[in-house]
Amino acid sequence: MNTLPQQLANGLFLGSMYGLIAIGYTMVYGIVQLINFAHGEIFMTGGFGALTVYLYVLPDGTSMWIALPAMLIGGGIVAVLIAVGAERFAYRPLRGAPRLAPLITAIGLSLALQQIVFNAYPDAKTDRNFPQLPFGPWHIGSISVQSGSVFVIIAAPICMAALAFFVRLSRTGRAMQATAQDPDTAQLMGIDTNRIIVIAFAIGGFFAAVAAVAYGLRYGTVKYDMGFQMGLKAFTAAVLGGIGNIYGAMIGGLVLGLAETMATSYIDGIPGMQQLGGGGWSSVWAFVLLILVLLFRPQGLVGERVADRA
Amino acid sequence: MRQRSLVILTSVLTTGALTLTACGSRDDSGDSKSSKKTEIIIGVDAPLTGQNSATGLGIQGGVQIAVDDANKNNTVPGVKFKVVALDDKAIPASGQQNATQLVQNDKVLGVVGPLNSGVATQMQQVFATANLVEISPSNTAPELTQGKNWQTSKSRPFKTYFRTATTDALQGGFAADYAYNTLKKRKVFVVDDKQTYGAGLAKLFKAGFTKAGGKVAGEDHVNTGDTDFSALVTKIKNSKADLVYYGGQYDESEKLTKQLKDGGAKIPLFGGDGMFTPTYIETAGKTSEGDLVTSVGQPVDSLPSAAEFIKKYKASGLKGDYGTYGGYSYDAATAIIKAIGNVVKDGKVPSDARAKIVDEVQKTKFDGIAGPVSFDEYGDTTNKQLTVYQVVDGKWKAVKSGTFNG
Questions:
Q1: What is the ipTM score, two decimals?
Q2: Which of B235, B250, B282 to mutate to test the interface with A (most CBs of A within 10 A)?
Q3: If you average pLDDT over residues B36-54, what whole number do you get?
Q4: Helices and strands in chain B, H and E counts
Q5: What is the pTM of this model?
Q6: With contacts defined as CB-CB under 8 Å, which chain A residues touch B227?
Q7: Mutating which of A1, A4, A115, A126 best tests the B interface, going by the most B Cβ atoms within 10 A?
Q8: How many angstroms separate the CA atoms of B227 and A257, rounded?
Q9: Distance between CA A81 and CA A104 in Å, rounded?
Q10: Are strands B134-136 and B395-403 parallel, antiparallel or unpaired?
Q11: A289: β partners
């Protein structure tokens, strides 16, 4: 059997999920030059928000066709509220402070969110089962596709297209571009930069929630610490694509997902590399790729070279 | 300068020490007023939160019931037992810290735990130095009792360490035997999580399976905490294996089996006792149907001797299920309590109580709720019962029990 198509599909599914989370990192960085390390935890709360809607809001046995949109909205609301709250109470007071200060706050916030869910959410200490789509898996030729993967493969392009239209064509989107380019001048031109920053956080939070629902559907569980590894990978994807560039985030995600999948399946087939292949090494190769890209193209795959700020 | 800081350090230490002793003495007088009994603590170390906590809580619960029984029956006259359970989160360094904390408390005369073999390796030395007896209900790595070179020359590294679980040397071989001779599987794909327990189990399974005549179609490793196994699943499917053996815990294997079956590979996953929990079936759902595990001993619920234990556990309102090791934890705690009974008379704890208790545990011999309890010269249980379980209609069902001698 030819495994390549299946592995490409696997990489695509994984990469789409990374890409959705990476957009949150990249938008926030593009506008306020802040690496929001709590974004992984915002992703996690989105997952728990969606689960809460399913378990405690909807009546038992609701069809997934109705439940899924409700969960997306519920998870989205939770993640957006937390992302916006984080901006308002953790980052805004530190705007203008040296860059290290908000970074430390972000790490603190990430730990705090993790511990709050760990201690406060019922049974969150171990995996919580996530509702599953009632159809699939499908087997198309040599490729098998899980129902959870279908969700992410449909959701990711829709989200991306909507975001692209929003940024290019709407007034707010253009204000966003202006703020990203030069916040001070944008403010002089009458743009409410605080509002723009809040919107960037909100969009990032919503996309993270979509990714979290995809994660739950695909792996069957959500867990208090699921944000850590996914957040780290998504951050890597954002940097890989060129942080600050929203298309870069998606492409970086896809490249990273494919790289991990390919590393798992092919590296231990290369003579002399048996010890360095397999699933246990996939993350190592992902980071090797990151280092290589940064060495030869420090602005990332699709990022533009920016002049150093004075 | 140097001297001044020394003075400050000394005074801080002295104040601290004084405060501590003052607190201690107040506690003691308070205790003796409320009851004339000497308080003795049985320590527990297990993952009570995070990964593996479902199983860890079962250990804590098993010990709690043994202690409650001992207090109710006045097993050791003049002594009131208490459980102090510390959470190691399945992290070796936390286990070591907990061990240090338990050793420093004079009231602790025995410890049950930990759950994970990897954690145990970091705790053994601490207990050995303090002569404090430690009985694990679940550690299965052979080197814990038989030394690093256990395959060629056995030698016991720590005389304070005992276990009521039988070792991977038997579990891996037992599984291989069942897979080859009963299931008639011939090509296996072996996956492990690179931990002491998982890698050890996988290695022994592989050895047993190839020795029986089977073929290893492929091998791979995962990291603990990983969730996406789609690439690995494709590899397994491509290898045309008719069985996957997984060395590791339920956290990863439940996702692996789900992705394996969803990925179109309709072959069972076979694992060790780390997968043997209800959580595994809950999470993997229908995809876990037909999966197999081996576990030490016989199923606690099938033993008439454990019926009362199960009744008490369910009535106690303890968190979680007694799981795989609740019964063995009960027996481990009972062994410690019996040993204390031989050493502590009328509530008087001799100064060398800890050392004497270790000797008493070594000599122990009684019928526990999960089978006969006694230890060989390495501290291993002499009860070499093993059982294969399979998921049938969404429940673990015992399919074969037996003894295995490698």
A1: 0.86
A2: B235
A3: 88
A4: 13, 14
A5: 0.78
A6: 215, 219, 226, 229
A7: A126
A8: 13
A9: 21
A10: unpaired
A11: none
